[in-house]
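Priority: medium. Attachment 1 of 2:
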């Protein structure tokens, strides 16, 4: 059972100091007034580890209470030297001192270097008592696992060469008027699995209060009781519940982590900001502290002046960080100056704790914003399908002054862990901040793999941004670009957004609840411990019964705690029942590994009882099946590298996807055909390299385009320039032809560049490639006839003519398809085809390049070969078409659709009240769109891995999704996350309907393929009723006039 239980607040407690004999010898030298006494070597005197009660206790509580000092505890104690007769004359000393006891110290805790860490400045005897002192330790093993220590140093007096073992020596010194000659320091070290620094500091402060008077109990007994009490305190589960217990004279608060992925924060995070200026905080340390745990050596090594200078944090991110830090209120006295004076210790303690919590939250948000500003664009260089990061291209997009910093960071293990979290699509604090700060433009970009050229809006903004006065080569791949015009969004800076920092500054701490842990009664014998756990469970049960059912977050934490305490008591079935309740309250904190271990140790009799309870039988089955199905998570990350061997089609598809050029498999197949024209159906490394390099060079050239304001004002703010011709002679004058996703225009040359529109793709009527005579030459010419102009545009494009002819026809056909089908994705796909054509022509440099490029003219061929006629009724009725599979490697079927109206909850922020369209795709994927702009709001979160069968909005904050894996997943519409599951069905969930009374949802019905219908209480998620229809293949249910109609498939 001990191996199953999670760690409590305390892992180990140690008393560190010097043995009596050595202290006596040192004090004699001190009394002789030796000028400089060397430091003493500290030792571990006693170690206290759980459990603190004996397993074979058979006597009654009364017997134990009468024999406190005989209670068996697990402890390690150095063998005590018997005091000399002359030193103990007249003292009531117990001469039956036990020898050293053998214990098993936790295997991953090494005590060899602990004494030196408890006395980092050395152990010196003093002529006067000094203030108690506390410091913190962090132990990290070679695997990165951490344990945490809090050390309290205190001083004991020595009189006549004797350390008093109880209160008699102190009493005698008072009677005789003799003063203590010297004081010897000791240290109490508490080691925990959790970084509860402030809580353990408060606990040790309370312990020192009890140790100081030297009453009638040995100090080690005080420490044993102290350690035993801490061992009984559990660590709270993640979420809005903190634990509080009485340590006398202080109330100790054990804070929980904010969510399962967040660390425990129990330290004043503003302390570095008090010690250093904000700019210094962003700098690395100038020396390295080395600690050898095996030998107990502590050394400090200054960095060599010859070493390279540590690079600075990126400039703009650093400036925002410094500005926000300067706005913090770091001094508690300033906070107090306008408040009334506290009248008791508890009030003062809680007031200061609330101030620290608020300040910690602000520091965390500022630091998170710093990390976000530094690494927000990493996602643009990730390939999720093949888990590839293109570090080289990422570095090219950084400002020259920032590149040394990024080069250092990209080599670190920490950044590698960050990449793994991004590729695993972990919804951590970074991802939540990214989601909450998305603009409408960002959401549109998600639908189309985001624009990879500077828009007119960005081009205009960077002209006034000092960060861009230095030329930057913005070389980013993936050309799928968007054509939907954002509705009045603020200007998005290409690296940082001021609006985001303002939004982050308004963040306020989340409210938390407190649960008071029952008192621990001593002596700590088995019956006393049992009484403590019983009180704990009863207190939790009363709290659970008094909570409203809609407060599921708190209910989940109380169920978790009650399950944990029941497990500690050995009540496995009760513990399993409480953990099973987490499915309906908050599945994020479900302790899968702990439950699996519990199932493994279930006795046959209790396993039989569990099998007779449907909910426990289902829980055991689910956990067991997950264990069988569990495979090692693929969390590797690799850097993109150009291929070194010949590639067949499948390998070529993988390489192109890894490069980030394009994801769609059918498009890559056409690219493969284009690059292998006239050759065997394989691509050599040199061809791939030439294609890739040309693609990147073209991107770089277009990124360098800097249109004057007189030209930008003619274009839409979301337009981007994708292709520029050479300077050519046209019927509109001399200049360069520019292509955006919407139009062609001439960038005229001369004293001041000007803008002349050639045509939008929608207005093109005819495109021809001809020749014109010039002396004895025939010059290739591109002719474009438009609907709105009588004049035909002609351009002497010479060698570029055939390519531009192909590109314009493809964009024209793509725009027509886009308009006919009301699907903007077609024009974006046409643009992808056009850019691939350009790269193929540039890479191959042969006589067949135009023929090869024509392999990519997908929409032009469709227009000529298989014209798709849209019926008039369809064309008039169809308003817009969206593609939920954008960003995926292949199209996916839409299994279920759900529309939820806007203003889901008045408590939602104004920017989040839009109506939503939910699309259930393959393998449990769900995409959510803003139904007012048709931009994507949540890109493919997953609920299970099976086909989804039905979706319904049960109430304003809940969407229920049925799955073929027999589970109903409950989505919180505010956080867009799945925190709850209903597991009572035994077959495919096929349909869900909601019953409303007085326009308020009162009950939900769900049906499964095996004929089971379940009525659910929407508030409590409890089963109101279950009935089994005498049929199979039940496919749908409908409510009508208080009748539930059930349909089956024959």
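Attachment 2 of 2:
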């Amino acid at each position: 059972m001990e191996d199953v239980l999670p760690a409590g607040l305390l892992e180990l407690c140690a008393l560190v100091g010097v043995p009596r004999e050595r202290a006596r010898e040192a004090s004699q030298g001190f009394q002789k007034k030796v000028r400089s006494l060397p430091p003493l070597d500290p030792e571990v005197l006693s170690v206290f580890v759980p459990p603190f009660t004996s397993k074979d206790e058979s006597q009654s509580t009364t017997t134990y209470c009468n024999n406190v000092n005989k209670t068996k505890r697990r402890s390690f104690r150095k063998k005590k030297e018997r005091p000399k007769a002359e030193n103990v004359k007249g003292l009531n000393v117990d001469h039956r001192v036990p020898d050293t006891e053998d214990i098993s110290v936790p295997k991953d805790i090494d005590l060899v270097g602990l004494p030196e860490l408890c006395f980092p400045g050395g152990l010196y005897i003093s002529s006067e008592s000094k203030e108690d002192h506390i410091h913190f330790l962090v132990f990290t093993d070679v695997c990165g696992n951490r344990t945490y220590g809090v050390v309290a140093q205190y001083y004991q007096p020595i009189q006549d060469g004797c350390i008093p073992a109880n209160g008699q020596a102190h009493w005698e010194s008072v009677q005789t008027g003799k003063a203590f000659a010297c004081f010897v320091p000791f240290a109490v070290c508490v080691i925990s699995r959790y970084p509860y620094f402030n809580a353990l500091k408060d606990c040790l402060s309370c312990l020192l209060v009890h140790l100081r008077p030297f009453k009638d109990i040995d100090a080690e007994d005080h420490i044993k009781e102290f350690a035993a009490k801490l061992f009984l305190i559990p660590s709270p589960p993640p979420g809005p519940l903190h634990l509080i217990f009485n340590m006398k004279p202080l109330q100790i608060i054990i804070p929980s982590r904010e969510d399962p992925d967040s660390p425990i924060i129990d330290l004043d995070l503003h302390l570095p900001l008090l010690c250093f200026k904000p700019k210094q905080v962003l700098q690395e340390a100038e020396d390295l502290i080395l600690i050898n745990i095996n030998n107990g050596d502590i050394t400090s090594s200054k960095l060599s002046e010859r070493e390279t200078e540590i690079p600075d944090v990126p400039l703009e991110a650093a400036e925002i960080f410094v500005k926000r830090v300067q706005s913090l209120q770091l001094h508690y006295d300033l906070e107090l100056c306008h408040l009334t004076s506290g009248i008791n210790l508890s009030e003062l303690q809680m007031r200061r704790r609330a101030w620290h919590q608020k300040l910690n939250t602000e520091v965390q948000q500022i630091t998170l914003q710093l990390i976000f500003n530094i690494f927000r664009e990493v996602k643009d260089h990730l390939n999720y399908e093949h888990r590839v990061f293109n570090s080289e291209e990422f570095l090219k997009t950084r400002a020259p002054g920032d590149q040394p910093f990024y080069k250092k960071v990209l080599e670190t293990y920490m950044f590698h862990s960050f990449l793994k979290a991004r590729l695993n699509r972990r919804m951590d604090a970074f991802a939540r901040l990214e989601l909450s700060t998305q603009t409408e433009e960002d959401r549109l970009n998600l639908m189309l793999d985001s624009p990879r050229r500077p828009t007119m809006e960005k081009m205009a903004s960077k002209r006034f941004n000092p960060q861009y006065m230095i030329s930057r080569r913005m070389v980013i791949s993936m050309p799928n670009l968007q054509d939907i015009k954002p509705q009045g969004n603020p200007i998005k800076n290409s690296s940082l957004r001021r609006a985001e920092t303002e939004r982050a500054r308004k963040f306020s701490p989340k409210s938390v609840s407190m649960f008071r842990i029952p008192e621990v009664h001593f002596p700590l014998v088995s019956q006393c411990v049992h009484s403590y756990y019983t009180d704990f469970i009863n207190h939790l049960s009363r709290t659970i019964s008094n909570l409203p059912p809609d407060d599921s977050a708190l209910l989940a934490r109380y169920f978790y705690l009650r399950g944990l305490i029941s497990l500690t008591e050995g009540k496995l079935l009760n513990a399993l029942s409480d953990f099973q309740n987490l499915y309906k309250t908050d599945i994020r904190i479900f302790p899968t590994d702990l439950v699996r271990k519990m199932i493994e140790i279930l006795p046959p009799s209790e396993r039989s009882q569990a099998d007779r309870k449907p909910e426990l039988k289902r829980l055991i089955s689910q956990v067991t099946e997950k264990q069988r199905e569990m495979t090692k998570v693929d969390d590797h990350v690799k850097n993109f590298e150009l291929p070194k061997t010949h590639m067949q089609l499948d390998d070529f598809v993988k390489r192109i996807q890894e490069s980030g050029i394009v994801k769609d498999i059918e498009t890559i197949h056409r690219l493969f055909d284009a690059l292998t024209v006239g050759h065997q159906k394989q691509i050599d490394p040199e061809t791939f390299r030439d294609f890739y390099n040309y693609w990147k060079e073209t991107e770089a050239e277009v990124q360098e385009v800097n249109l004057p304001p007189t030209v930008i004002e003619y274009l839409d703010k979301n337009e981007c320039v994708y292709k520029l011709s050479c300077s050519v002679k046209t019927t509109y004058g001399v200049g360069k032809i520019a292509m955006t996703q919407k139009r062609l225009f001439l960038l005229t040359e001369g004293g001041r560049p000007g803008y002349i529109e050639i045509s939008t793709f929608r207005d093109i009527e005819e495109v021809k490639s001809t020749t014109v005579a010039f002396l004895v030459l025939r010059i290739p010419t591109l002719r474009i006839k438009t609907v709105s102009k009588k004049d035909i545009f002609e351009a002497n494009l010479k060698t570029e003519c055939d390519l531009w002819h192909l590109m314009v026809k493809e964009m024209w056909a793509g725009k027509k398809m886009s308009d006919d089908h009301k699907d903007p994705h077609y024009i974006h796909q046409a643009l992808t085809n056009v850019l691939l054509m350009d790269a193929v022509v540039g890479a191959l440099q042969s006589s067949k390049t135009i023929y090869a490029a024509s392999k990519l003219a997908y929409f032009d061929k469709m227009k000529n070969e298989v014209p798709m006629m849209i019926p008039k009724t369809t064309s008039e009725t169809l308003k817009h078409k969206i593609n939920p599979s954008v960003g995926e490697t292949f199209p996916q079927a839409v299994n279920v659709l759900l529309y939820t109206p806007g203003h889901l909850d008045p408590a939602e922020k104004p920017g989040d009240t839009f109506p939503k369209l939910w699309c259930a795709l393959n393998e449990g994927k769900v995409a959510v769109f803003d139904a007012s702009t048709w931009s994507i709001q949540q890109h493919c979160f997953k609920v299970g891995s099976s086909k989804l069968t039905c979706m319904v909005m049960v109430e304003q904050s809940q969407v229920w999704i049925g799955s073929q894996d027999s589970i109903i997943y409950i989505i919180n519409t505010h956080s867009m996350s799945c925190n709850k599951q209903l597991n009572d069905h035994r077959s495919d969930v096929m349909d869900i309907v909601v019953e409303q009374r007085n326009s308020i949802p009162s009950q939900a019905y769900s049906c499964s393929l095996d004929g089971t219908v379940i009525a659910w209480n929407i508030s409590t998620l409890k089963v109101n009723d279950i009935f089994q229809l005498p049929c199979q293949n039940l496919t749908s249910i409908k409510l009508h006039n208080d009748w539930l109609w059930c349909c089956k498939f024959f």
